[in-house]
TrEMBL record:
The name this protein goes by in its record: Pitrilysin family protein
Pfam families on file: Peptidase_M16, Peptidase_M16_C
Signal peptide: 1-22
Peptidase M16 C-terminal domain segment(s): 224-393, 665-844
Boundaries of every Peptidase M16 N-terminal domain copy: 67-202
InterPro entries: Metalloenz_LuxS/M16, MPP/UQCRC_Complex, Pept_M16_N, Peptidase_M16_C
Similarity remark: Belongs to the peptidase M16 family.
Keywords, sorted A to Z: Hydrolase, Metalloprotease, Protease, Signal
Amino acid sequence: MKFTLGPTAFGLALLASTPLMSAISFPPHAMAQQTATSLTVKNSSHPDSSIIAKQDILRKTLNNGLRVVIIKDSLAPVVTAQISYLVGSNQAPKGFPGTAHALEHMMFRGSQGLDKDQLAVIGAQLGGSYNAFTTENVTQYYYTAPAEDLNVILKIEALRMGGLSLNAADWDKERGAIEQEVSRDLSNPIYKYVSELQKLMFDGTPYEHDALGTRPSFDKTTVSLLRKFYETYYAPNNAILVITGDIDPNKAVEQVEKDFGSIPKKTIPELESFTLKPIKAKTLTYPTDFPTSLVTIAWRMPGEKSKNFAVADILSDVISSQRGALYGLVPQGKALMADFEYVPKGEVGFGVAIAAFPKGQDYKPILNEVNQILQTIREKGVSPELVEAAKRKEIAQLAFSANSITGLASSWSTALAFQGLNDPNEMAAAYQAVTPEQVNALAKEILNPDEAITAILTPEDSGKPISNKGYGGAESFASVPEKPVQLPDWAQQALNKLNIPKEAPKPSEMVLSNGIRLIVQPLNVSNTISVFGQIRQNPSLQEGKGKEGIAGITNDMFKYGTKTLDRLAFRKAVDDIAADISAGSDFSLAVLTPDFDRAMQLLADNELNPAFEQKFFDIVKQQAAQSLIGLYQSPGYHFNRAIAKAINPPNDPSLRQPDPALVKKLTLQDLNDFYKKSFRPDLTTIVIAGNITPEQAKASVEKYFGNWENIGPKPNLDMPTRPDSKSSFVHVPDKTAVQNSVALVESINLDVHHPDHYLLNLGNEVLSGGFAGRFYKDLRVKTGYVYNVNSDFGWSRTRGSYSITFGADPDKVSLARKAALKDLTAMQTSPVTDNELQLAKASLLRSIPLQQASVDGIAGQYLTYTDLGLPLNSAHIAAKNYYKASAAEVQKAFQTYVRPKDLAEIIKGPATPTP
C-alpha cells in the first residue's frame, strides 16, 4: 500500500481498520496536441479492454524551459492548476532543513505587482481551494477554482515565479505561524517516530531530515537566506505546470505563454550525489496518546524514481492485502489492525509493517507474529495470484483519476514531477511488467531482519480532565474597520462579477418499490462506475439500553464475508475485477464499467447476505471491548467527550456510549436483531455515477436489491431539540503534546431547515474564509499566535452548533482566544463592511461549482442532502440566499443565535497560564 504524501508531507498514515480507532496521520519546444494512449488491463473478465477514456492533452515546453501539460476534463466547470518546483528540503543549506518549507509559506506573503492582502482577497474571491506542500524533492502550489478564473490563477503563479516580495517584517510574522506548525507536529507521536526513523534510515544524506524544519533553524533563518534559495531554484526551467478542467487547452496555453513566457530561465545547481550507509537493526520505544498500542517494523525501500518503484509498490500491496497473512492477524483476533505502509521519497523510501493491540498487553507475541509473517515472505516468496491482483488494482486505479479534476492533475504532477516520468501511462506499463519473481527478489533483499528498525508505541496515561465553570464569557471589544483592498486591474476585471452560478445538471431520481431512493448521475469522463450507498441510522436512538456498541460491531462484521462466499473467497472475487467494495450502513463500490454487473452482485451479497458467524462475532466483540478500554483513557477521547458534554444536556441521547463490560455480553442475536431493524431499504439512498444510463442503473439495483424488505415500522431518527448550552472550561492533559488543541463551542437554537442558517454561514465566511478571514488575519497573519484557525456551524435536521478551533503554544492560547472572541463579538456590534460581504458572497457562490468537480463530491453532496432531508438542488437554493443577503441581516442573525458569553472552552495538551 503506497502512502501518498499529502499537504503536510511529514508523516506516516496508520490506517486503523476497527470502527473504534481513528486514522492517525504520519506529500522539443514544439507544441504537441495529442490524445492519451488508453491504458489496458488484462484480467479474466475483459482482456485487453480500454479502461481510460481518451483525453485531450496538450503539451508544450516554453522557450524558458517551463514544461506545461493541459488536460481537458469536462466533469464540471472547474479548473485545477498545479505548479511543481523541482526543489525541496534536500536542497536546503546545511543547518537550515526547513528552508524550502519556509519559502513555501512566504510565497503567500506577496510578490511584485500583488501584495499579500491582494493575494488573500483574490484567493477568497475565487471561492476555491488553494495551498501548497513541501517534500524532500518537490514544492507544489495548487489552485482549484471556477474554470472561468484560470487566467487569474495563472497570473498569480507567474507573478510569484517572477519576483517574490520577501521582506523581513512579513518573515517575522510568518515565522511565528510556522513555529506553531512545528509545535503541532511535535505533538504527534508518529511525527517523532518518523523523524527518528528517517535519521536512522538515511543518515548522512539529505533524506535524514524531513521537510518540516526545526524551531532553532527557523530562528536563525533570515530573509536574505530565503531570497538566495528562491533566486537559485524558483525558475521556469525548474518547474512543471499541470492544468486540468473544463477549459480550451489552446486558449489556456496562450495564456500561459503570455504570463510566464518572459520570465528568464536560470542555471540550476546539480544535485549532489550521496551514498546510503548500512543499517543496523534497532528497537525504539515511544509514549503516545493513542488508545491502543502499536508495533512497527520498518525497512529501507526504493524511491519513486527508482527502477524498482513499481515492484516495491506491488510488494507493499501484496503484504497489505486482506487476503494476506499480515491482515489475517485481525480475523484471528491477534491484532486490532494490521497493515503495511510504503512511503516513497524520491531516490529512497521506506516501508513499515504495523499492528495494533490492546493497551496494557505484552507486545512480544504480536511482534513475533509480524516478524514471522514477513520472514516467511522473504524466504518463500509471495503468491503469484496476489501479485496479479495487485497489478490489476494499481492499473485500474489510474482510470479513476479522471473522476476528479484535482485528482487528474495530481496524477500527472506525480508522474512528471515526483516520478520523473513522461505521463501516468508509463507507470501503468511499469506495473504491467512486474513479475512475481521480481517481487520475490525485492522482498528477499529488503526484508532483512538485520536491517529492520522496530518500534514499540505505548499509550501513556496523562491524567484526568480538569473542569470548572469557565472564564465568564467574552470580553467586549470594538470592531476595528480595515481599509478595503484595491485589487490589480486584471483581477478586478475578472472577479468583480457577483453571479448566482448556473444550476448543476439534475440527476435522475426515483424511488423503487421497496423504498430505496436511487439517484443516478451519468458521467462520461472515464470508463468507470461508482456506487455510494447510505442507510440512515442513529445508533443513539436505535441501540437498546445495555446494547450500546452493537451498531459499530455490526458494521465491522461485514468484512467477514457472506453466506455464499467466506472472507477470503469474497476478497478474491473483488480482486478478480480490480474493484473496491465495502458494506455496512455506508456502502460503496468503484469498478471498471465492464465489470459493473458482477460488482453489484458482490456488493448486494455482502450488504444483504452477510455471514455474521459466531466465531468472528466473538472476535470482533472482544476487539471492540478492548479498543474501548484504551479509548476511554486517551486524551483524544476526553477532548471530544468534553466537547459533546459542553453542548448537550446531561441526559441527551448523543451522550450514550458503550460500556466495555456490557459489550462483552452482547450476543449474536443482538447483532441480528439490530441488523433486521436498522438496515432498511426505505431508509436507504443509493447514488450511482459514471459511465452508465439511469435505465441501466435502475435495472441493476432492482435486480440485486429489489427483494430487500422492510421489517417493522419505520423508526424516528431525529434527535430532540436541546436547550442553549452554557459556558464551561475543561483542560485535558496530554503528556505527548507540546502544543494545545483548543475548541470554543456552543449549541445553536437553529436547524438546517431554517433560512437564517444561510446568514450564519455567510457571516462565518467573513470570520473564517481562509487567508482573508478575520480569524486568520488576526490570529495568524498579524500576530503568529496560531498556525491554523477555523470556525464552523454544524447543522442537522433538528439541531445546530458553533465551534472555533485552533492550535497554539500554551502561552499563546489566552491571546488567541481573546482575539477570536473580539472578532466574533464584532459581528454582533456592527455590520460587516460592504467589502467583506461582497468577498464572502463571492467565495461561497464561486465555491458551489467545485462541489461537482469529482464523482465523490457529487455523490457525497447528494447523500448529505438526503440525510438532512433537503432537496437535491439545495446548493442552488443556498446560492440564491447568499446572493440576496444584506449586512444588516447577517448582523441580526449573529445577535439572535450566537452567544459569545456561553462558549465553552476545551483545551487538550500542556497546562496553560491562568488568563
